[in-house]
Write a structure and sequence with these properties.
This protein is mainly alpha-helical. The protein is built from 10 helices and 4 strands. A two-stranded antiparallel sheet has the order 1-2. It is elongated. The protein starts with a helix and ends in a 13-residue tail after the last helix. 30% of the residues are buried. This is GntR family transcriptional regulator. Pfam families: FCD, GntR. Keywords: DNA-binding, Transcription, Transcription regulation.
């Protein structure tokens, strides 16, 4: 069975975001193919996609390497998200479906419950699902794609401190959903802008040590998961 390039791309991207591959390090097709248990063809296609996304660069005499973003580039990503997430929420207020609302409301209920209990790990993943669903509710595949890429890159470049007031943060999520449900684009835009601005303040640039990177490499040796590809 030929493993799709997008699955290989996801696996490599996830490892780049997790810090498995050091910034500036070479990404050889042969080693990547062996690591993920695939041929070199999907690896080659995946590297082209990751280069287009900005995770990989091609250097003369070195080939594909993990990109080395500057602090300014990292700051630009946060600014872009602060502009685009409110736009996505405003569009969601106009285009959301009942299915989107059901998922968003369910995530808010779970988030508020976990916030009261202090389950920070759960809150981070729930927050990611919330914003992914909100972007999808915008009805714009282009905007959803850009926001998804921004979240991947920001997760790669930044570590996020746990919010000082998780209950308040999830109340803001609830306010966003209320505005989207009412079809109030301006309210959805304003509440999301405030929420994104507060969340941005918790981001800190990553400065991992060589030892920490080595631990991540040892703990993430895995092939591409093909279970979901059999359908």
């Amino acid at each position: 069975m030929r493993i799709p390039a997008h699955s290989v791309c996801t696996a490599i991207r996830d490892d780049i975001v997790a810090g498995v591959y050091e910034r500036g390090s070479r990404l050889t097709e042969e080693l990547l193919a062996r690591r993920y248990g695939v041929s070199r063809v999907p690896v080659r296609e995946a590297l082209r996609t990751l280069e287009a996304e900005g995770f990989v660069v091609t250097r003369r005499h070195a080939g594909a390497c993990v990109a080395e973003p500057t602090e300014q580039e990292a700051a630009d990503l946060l600014e872009m998200r602060m502009l685009l997430e409110p736009l996505g929420a405003a569009r969601a207020a106009q285009r959301r479906t009942e299915a989107h609302l059901k998922v968003l409301r369910g995530l808010v209920r779970l988030g508020q419950e976990r916030a009261r209990r202090g389950n920070s790990d759960d809150l981070r993943s729930l927050g990611g699902w919330f914003h992914e669903t909100l972007a999808q509710a915008s009805g714009s595949p282009a905007l959803t794609s850009v926001l998804t890429q921004l979240r991947h890159k920001i997760a790669w470049m930044y570590t996020v401190e746990a919010p000082a007031g998780p209950v308040e943060s999830w109340s803001e999520h609830g306010a966003i959903v209320d505005a989207v449900a009412r079809g109030d684009s301006e309210r959805a835009r304003a509440v999301t802008a405030l929420h994104t601005e507060r969340a941005t303040a918790a981001h800190r640039l990553r400065f991992g040590s060589a030892g920490e990177r080595a631990d991540r490499v040892r703990n993430s040796q895995h092939p591409v998961n093909t279970a979901s590809l059999r359908h």
